[in-house]
Design goal:
The complex is a heterodimer of chains A (539) and B (345). By secondary structure, chain A is mainly α. Chain A contains 25 helices and two strands. Helix content of chain B is 36%, strand content 19%. Chain B is built from twelve helices and eleven strands. In chain B, strands 1, 2, 3, 4, 5, 6, 7, 8, 9, 10 and 11 form an eleven-stranded mixed β-sheet that branches. The longest helix of chain B is centred in the first third of the chain and has 20 residues. Classes of the chains: A mainly alpha (539), B alpha/beta (345).
Chain lengths: 539, 345
């Protein structure tokens, strides 16, 4: 393509936005069309719309919003100290912390539920420990099955989003603002509040907003732990799409859900744009050597995460090696793995191959397209950036059902397309956030020196936010590798990525083997993050 | 950081192109052998897993008839029906396999199925053949039951009514009737047992319920992880533990109120492209050769009486009293039931 001076990349914004909106809404069309054609029962679309506003659903909506709000706040509280420590200080285990903390993205909800139950549950490790130490006859920790249990689990499930995104932004923040404030005599806290915090607000809002959306659509965690305290809209969508075979109801409710989620995304975008004044800086500041009380802070934080977040993961890992049988606790061994590796067709090896062959290209495609979109949307304002987040606001179940109706032949190519569309908003958000911090300075200088807009964009801007791109790519890979809906509805024949294998194992009584497969899935995505961190170390 | 010109994005594009071409190469092309008779069966996902029934009975059927059968997984039973309904007049399958009595009303009203009476259907017990028009033909079934972990709880409940006793406070794991078949089955069960009194029963049952999971898999997973000693499942569940773990620790409880069954069915689509092959498959599905494969793959009872059962099935419960299937009513009441359990906490 030839550079044409005077033509901004931003001119592509409407095209990019319509493409993203089409990707988000296209799968809803065949469902709505099918619903229209059927036109039977419950007064068609109008009836379904009235149905979706029933008191029960409104109560569910309130509960969904309340738990998502509290959960996002909890995730922020857990993640923010980690963002500070990992972005500013060099310490042993920092890389491990950053890569391990991304694992939950790839651990499917059923295993998250199982891991928290194994650790915090009534018969879990923590309760058994406390009962043995204090000689109790009843488990002392019973908060898990309550509203606060949901918030607790969500907080620890989603804090990596905060740790990662905010940490990424924090690491490229110039220290001079805070240093200047300190020189002028401001206390540490004041210096942080006036110098650092305002600059971090966009990334904090983005990451917390993302955590909120994830909790908004959360399903298994909310039902298992909060099932007796309330319900969610997604349950109704699920029920209409699956149990009642009522596509009209499912699509209408999914639309209602989408509009709500979109309004949320839009509000976040507006809040964020208030504070996106141009900033200097760009490349990450060098990591500091911890001194004095920082040592203590690091040790405390690592211990805190090990106890509350490492515990459940470890419990899950132990389960993967536990051979069940009879009345005892069973034995420990490799049986679950060998059965999966040696069974008919070696399902685990095949599953890993199938996972890599879809999640890798999907993540790469989303990173390339998403970074380009982020550049094009730079000037598009908050509405534009919110539209870029639209696919996040559509129910996963309905999306997958819609795509499967559009392309009934399915195939792994289609799985790649749908997965990359699904993770695209994530990449756009993450790269946009980095571009906001980068400001327009470097690219404008390059253009003054005679570079065309594309060259300025790709050569200067994208190169400067490369760490954010790689980070987004790793996240995209983790999310794509952990997705169940797309492969289960769109794949054909013997295509069986790890989440599908896991799903089939859990629906066939084989939970320890499912834990083994889940552990492998987690390690696979952790490897992606480690690789990313390794690259970063060399840069 | 140094400014790198151009390279990054382009490199990624090349890697992506390379990978996607690799993926498309590794996909198998359709081997369309000349004169091969074929058949497409839509089913739910867990039917096609390696260890499941699909890969077992597919080759058996091909050997017996020379017809190649392709199983296409469409999510779970409900998604299967949704797909069929939305594909409507131009189905890409000949048979749908894996619907059940809870989805039957919707399936029959859709007009998507044609009647066919497979050879040997008369030997299937009448109470399992709930569709007299023979559009939906049963192939396996299992009763819902409460499974008891005998290592964790000394005295099990003796009846549905006993389940509300304070002795079982927070000891029962249920599934949500709005999102899972066993959950719906439990509701139908209480409706069949208590009639109009079911709402009363559910509010009394509430203190016994530890949690209500979205699906069977999560609920049963929590149960085997030791979180609660009682769970809603199938009367055949203990057979799995007997077969693979050689233990009788988990037992299905027989309740005097009787038990409700889930009956899994298959049917030929009205617009099937290969109707004769489809009929051959339906004949095969209820034949002894196929039926004897079902216990250890589906963990359900075969519908054909006299089918030889594996030894582990002696651990399964065959209830002496069975209740009629009240599926449509349960569908309508699922919201109310969930509301009763979630109110006031």
């Amino acid at each position: 393509m030839k550079d044409r001076p005077g033509r901004e990349l931003g001119a592509a914004a409407p095209i990019v936005l319509s493409a993203i909106a089409i990707l988000a809404f296209l799968p809803l069309l065949p469902i709505a069309a099918g619903a229209w054609n059927l036109g039977e029962g419950r007064g068609g679309i109008g009836g379904a719309l009235r149905n979706s506003l029933s008191p029960g659903n409104l109560r569910a909506l309130w509960f969904t919003l309340a738990q998502a709000g509290a959960s996002a706040a909890a995730a922020l509280a857990v993640g923010l100290p980690g963002a500070w420590l990992t972005s500013q200080y060099r310490f042993a285990g920092r890389r491990l912390l950053k890569s391990l903390s991304a694992v939950p993205f790839a651990v499917p909800p059923i295993l998250v539920v199982l891991s928290f139950v194994l650790y915090y549950g009534r018969a879990g490790y923590l309760n058994r420990f406390l009962m043995a130490v204090f000689g109790l006859s009843e488990p002392p920790l019973t908060f898990l099955y309550s509203f606060w249990g949901v918030v607790f689990v969500h907080g620890f499930y989603n804090f990596p989003i905060i740790l990662h995104s905010v940490g990424e932004a924090w690491s490229r923040l110039p220290r001079d603002g805070e240093e200047a404030a300190r020189l002028l005599g401001a206390g540490k806290f004041r210096a942080f509040a006036t110098g650092t915090l305002p600059a971090l607000i966009p990334s904090i809002i983005q990451a917390t907003g993302l955590a909120f959306i994830f909790c908004f659509f959360s399903f298994a965690v909310v039902l298992v732990f909060g099932g007796l305290s309330g319900s969610t809209l997604e349950v109704e969508v699920y029920r209409k799409a699956r149990i009642e075979a009522d596509p009209a109801g499912a699509s209408v409710l999914a639309l209602v859900e989408t509009v709500l989620a979109f309004v949320l995304v839009l509000c976040l975008g507006l809040a964020e744009s208030k504070d996106s004044g141009s900033r200097k800086s760009g490349s990450p500041s060098a990591l500091l050597k911890p001194r004095g009380r920082v040592h203590f802070a690091i040790a405390a934080y690592v211990a805190f995460l090990a106890l509350f977040f490492g515990g459940p993961l470890l419990a899950l890992a132990i389960e993967a090696f536990r051979i069940r049988g009879g009345y005892g606790a069973g034995s420990i061994g490799l049986g679950n793995f060998t059965r999966l590796l040696g069974g008919p067709g070696a399902p685990l090896l095949r599953a890993i191959r199938d996972s890599l062959s879809t999640a890798l290209p999907a993540a790469l495609a989303a990173t390339v397209v998403g970074s380009f979109a982020a550049l094009a949307l730079r000037k598009a304002g908050s509405l534009g950036r919110s539209i870029a987040g639209l696919p996040l606001a559509v129910s996963g179940i309905v999306t997958a059902l819609g795509w499967s109706l559009l392309f009934p032949q399915g195939g792994s190519g289609l799985v790649i397309v749908v997965l990359s569309a699904g993770v695209l908003p994530f990449v756009v958000k993450s790269v946009s956030g980095a571009l906001v911090i980068l400001g327009r300075g470097p690219a404008e200088s390059a253009r003054c020196l005679g570079a065309g807009p594309l060259r300025a964009a790709f050569g200067v801007d994208l190169a400067s936010v490369r760490p954010a791109m790689i980070s987004a790519g790793a996240f995209a890979f983790a999310i794509a590798a952990g997705d169940l809906n797309a492969p289960i509805l769109l794949a054909r024949g013997d295509f069986e990525p790890v989440p599908v294998l896991l799903y089939r194992l859990t629906s066939a009584y084989r939970f320890p083997e499912a834990c083994a497969a889940g552990l492998l899935l987690a390690l696979m995505t952790a490897a992606a993050f480690l690789a990313k961190e390794g690259r970063r170390g060399r840069a | 950081m140094h400014i790198v010109t151009g390279g990054c994005g382009r490199k990624l594009v090349y890697i992506f192109m390379l990978l996607s071409s690799l993926v498309s190469c590794s996909r198998k092309g359709d081997s369309d052998a000349e004169g091969q008779r074929r058949l497409t069966v839509y089913t739910y996902d867990s039917f096609v897993a390696d260890w499941s029934a699909g890969p077992k009975i597919g080759p058996l059927f091909e050997k017996a008839t020379g017809i190649k059968v392709e199983f296409v997984a469409k999510g779970d039973g409900g998604q299967l029906l949704s797909s069929l309904i939305l594909e409507g007049k131009r189905p890409r399958a000949d048979i749908a396999l894996g619907l059940d009595n809870f989805l039957a009303e919707k399936a029959l009203n859709s007009g998507l199925f044609r009647a066919y009476k497979p050879a040997g259907i008369d030997s299937i017990p009448a109470e399992l053949r709930f569709d007299p028009s023979n559009r939906l033909v049963p192939f396996d079934y299992g009763h819902f039951a409460i499974i008891w972990d005998s290592a964790k709880l000394a005295r099990p409940p003796t009846s549905l009514a006993d389940l509300v006793s304070p002795a079982f406070a927070k000891k029962l794991i249920l599934m949500d009737p709005r999102s899972s078949t066993p959950g719906l089955g439990f509701l139908a069960w209480t409706e069949a047992a208590f009639g109009e009194g079911w709402k009363d029963y559910w509010s009394k049952l509430k203190p016994s319920v530890l949690t209500m999971t979205p699906g069977w898999d999560t609920g049963y997973g929590l149960f085997t992880a030791g979180e609660a000693p009682l769970v809603l499942s199938y009367a055949t569940s203990p057979a799995y533990h007997a077969e693979t773990e050689k233990t009788d620790r988990y037992r299905a409880l027989e309740f005097p109120e009787g038990h409700v069954a889930q009956v899994e069915v298959a049917g030929i689509l009205s617009k099937a492209l290969h109707p004769r092959e489809a009929q051959a498959f339906m004949d095969f599905l209820v034949s002894p050769a196929c039926q004897r494969e079902l216990p250890l793959t589906q963990w359900m009872y075969p519908v054909l009486p006299g089918t030889e059962l594996p030894a582990s099935f002696s651990a399964a419960l065959r209830p002496s009293k069975t209740l009629p299937i009240g599926a449509p009513r349960a569908q309508a009441d699922a919201d109310r039931a969930a509301e009763i359990l979630t109110q006031g906490r």
